[in-house]
Known about the structure:
By secondary structure, the chain is α+β, with helices and mostly antiparallel strands. The chain folds into three domains: 182 residues, no CATH class; 34 residues, no CATH class; 39 residues. The protein contains five helices and eleven strands; from the N terminus they run H-E-E-E-H-H-E-E-E-E-E-E-E-E-H-H. The strands form two sheets. It has a nine-stranded antiparallel β-sheet, with no helix packed on it. It has a two-stranded antiparallel sheet with strand order 2-3. The protein is globular. The chain starts with a helix and ends with a helix. The N terminus is likely disordered.
Amino acid sequence: xxxxxxxxxxxxxxxxxxxxxxxxxxxxxxxxxxxxxxxxxxxxxxxxxxxxxxxxxxxxxxxxxxxxxxxxxxxxxxxxxxxxxxxxxxxxxxxxxxxxxxxxxxxxxxxxxxxxxxxxxxxxxxxxxxxxxxxxxxxxxxxxxxxxxxxxxxxxxxxxxxxxxxxxxxxxxxxxxxxxxxxxxxxxxxxxxxxxxxxxxxxxxxxxxxxxxxxxxxxxxxxxxxxxxxxxxxxxxxxxxxxxxxxxxxxxxxxxxxxxxxxxxxxxxxxxxxxxxxxxxxxxxxxxxxxxxxxxxxxxxxxxxxxxxxxxxxx
Length: 315
């Protein structure tokens, strides 16, 4: 009888061990997460891109990798470059934050030699020549990584992007279009879906739209092909290929993440900066220009006109 009880007890113990050992396998299988899939948009087929989006990078300062520096525009100093006289008064506010860059591959834009020289000239006078300083519309792709957000609106029949900077907008055609009748700052955009990726071909942009505040530029024949791919409920992977045989030795790409704003942050504010640069651009035309750059420019232009008139009088 004692032997029978021992056998039963042993069998029960072995059964408990077997059950305990198998339990983790069941729990592991149950814990395996389902593959993420983007929420479907208005057409019920493609992802929902609607929302306010922004970046967390410093690409608008320089799309290439760059260290922090004392100012956007520098001049030679006794030992190292120092802030240019035009911006020295801004101190740390005018400094440039470091950035890992968004150019893929070796991190450098493949300029042709003459184009690289042009870029360096632009960079040396960025405060004077960067189109952003004068509130010109930023163009594509720059509009997507400025420090101000933008909002995507799309239905099953239309896609529209509104940018906070300067009230810039893009109406993305969903059917292929003939060449634009004229070039513009934001160019012409034609979009279509490749699976869950929204592809947009951008052409006919004015050459007066740079890539950043460091003189990196495009030309009138530059083509940009964007790829917008949702990677979570609150992120989009943005990629773009830039092509222009007249400026670059080969096509090159950029890539970065966009983050969806939520709550009270999910709205655009007004930043119509044209009126903010009236003094910069037209202050010298006042009857009595204010002291500073406007007055100096007014005097300089008056002297140039006087010299031209004197030269014509001598002929």
